[in-house]
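Table S2 (continued). Query chain:
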Amino acid sequence: MTNRQPAGARGPGADGETTLSAAGLWPGRSLIAVMLVAAAALDLARCGIVLATARHAGPAIGLVAAGLAAAALSLRTARGCRSGRRWSAWAALLIGAASAPQAAGSGFHPPYAIPDIATAALGVLLTVAVLATAGPARQPDQLAENPCTDLGSPRSPAARPARTSPR
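Corresponding output:
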């Protein structure tokens, strides 16, 4: 996908046209991707704790499966975030918003206290980072000004002489 950059911006293009990188579309995406990888690591750490302390196989299998699915979703979202996909911002926001209540739901009991506190803090930081980097819902090459306000333009209605109807 190629878009024109603002005047004065330079960038390599295959056909001489400048391209707008994904970094210009979503600032902070690298930080959000790192936070998502950290969330996946915390999910995997919780899976390891479950396997080490499990007394019953049934609930342990369910918790490990949920942890592995959450880690896979976080890693997939981090990959989409790095490549500039639009859906990854929404997914990162949902992961961050769901991390704190999910971690608090376990009650911060030992041996899960450290991963749960870290997950809750990371979830809040991830949500704030996504919301802080949210930009306007428009394409970068769209003009923000109203073209009808230029009264000196020959195309504007105020610059044209008034029509008189033949009687």
